[in-house]
Amino acid sequence: MHESCGIFGVYSPQEDVARLTFFGLFALQHRGQESAGIATADGQRIRVYTGMGRVANVFTEENLKPLIGHMAIGHNRYSTSGSSNIANAQPLVVSNEDNTLAIAHNGNIINATFLYKELADQGYVFHGSADSEVIANTILSAPGKDMVEKIRHAMHRIKGAYSLVILTPNALYAARDPLGVRPLCIGKVDGGLAIASETCGLDHIGAEFVREIQPDEIVRINENGLQSYPGDSKERGLCIFEYIYFARPDSVINGKLLYPARQAMGAGLAREYPVDADIVMGVPDSATAAATGYARESGIPVVDGLIKNRYVGRTFIEPEQRMRDLGVKLKFNPLPQVLEGERCVVVDDSIVRGTTTPSVIRMLRKAGAKEVHMRICAPPIKFPCFFGVDMATRAELIAAQKSIEQIREYIGADSLGYLSIDGLIKAVDLPRENFCLACFTGEYPIPVQLEMDKLALETMGAGKPVDACDAIEDK
Ligand code: SF4
Hints:
Blueprint: E1 6-11, H1 17-27, E2 35-41, E3 46-52, H2 55-58, H3 61-64, E4 71-77, E5 92-95, E6 100-109, H4 112-121, H5 131-141, H6 147-157, E7 160-168, E8 171-176, E9 185-189, E10 192-196, H7 199-203, E11 208-212, E12 218-222, E13 225-229, E14 238-239, H8 241-246, E15 252-253, E16 256-257, H9 258-272, E17 279-282, H10 288-298, E18 306-308, H11 321-325, E19 332-334, H12 336-339, E20 343-348, H13 357-366, E21 371-376, H14 398-401, H15 404-411, E22 415-418, H16 421-428, E23 435-436, H17 438-441, H18 456-459, E24 473-474
């Protein structure tokens, strides 16, 4: 399972906003590693630079320098709609005869094909195939006397998950969909304000957390400070996977720090699935906190039995067959001295397709583990996600195809326990109604078509694939 995207924005006449955005994106790198980009505005023009890869690979002193202005937005992408290519790298800059805007989007909208067709019929040309470009053009084409009215009008038409930062030549805007599926927060920097997907993006630039942007809220930031335009949506649907896996454990969402919430998931697993064992370990890094929670609740000592190569990321160089056969060896290395002869509880965040877990278990057994008891922080994932998480199709989800006992046998564990939905809700300590739980229950907060396709807009002809061509665009 992969993260969605990370977005960042800043308004500060006192700061080098492109540099600040670089470091904001650097802190949000875990949310997407396929492409990165920054757009700035100086009251007259928007400048943008995007490239494929991680933010540290895309930006240099040379290409950051021309990004002048007093406000900026930035984006780290993991593709959940449209291919991974430079045409879909964000921020996207779009314009019509009246307006120009740059947009960075986290989420997925579910009526993109309908809106795309309507916009294409009106003569809007699409340079890429991501739903984010549909959002941008829906805003551009919306009626309204100012940008806030246009964004609000577009929000009535766009269905799905979207946290947005939007830049015009003279203001910075941010908005969150009516359910608040993806997080977004505001912080204070010297002489201005910053917006980030997660609070860790604020912490790393020395910004002080102010508050979260509310679901259905639009904010505008300019020389007059921050103006808020709340919406009237009462329903909530924050993605529970932000708590389980996506967001960093040092981020705060809905007033809750994620680290203790993950510990509580582990403690819940220890109560729901106790087992006689010698050691507890987490699959690093996302299940480390949950493993400490399991250990504390069960009294079984926690150890590091698997070491993760921290520099594993997306690579375009395919390993040769012999290396491919080694599977997850590229990512993890077991510690035989710790595992030899031990009965191990292994805590992981989730099982999606079930392709990684068998190799992890094989690796642990080969390193000497006598028993492997898998404990999973998420309930069985039986339904795909349409709200910004690249998960799998229903046919690929192992829990949609097999019973828990069949999964245990397939992954080769001595026992297997998934945290219950009630246990998960207890761990996050917020009302169940606040969350989207659709990948466990199939009850989507907005009706979806189960056959929706990540490349749907490409199929309809949007955005011809282009060669990588990093370039400064002046609009
Ligand atoms: S379906 Fe699952 S992964 Fe997608 S938003 Fe809902 S809880 Fe998150």
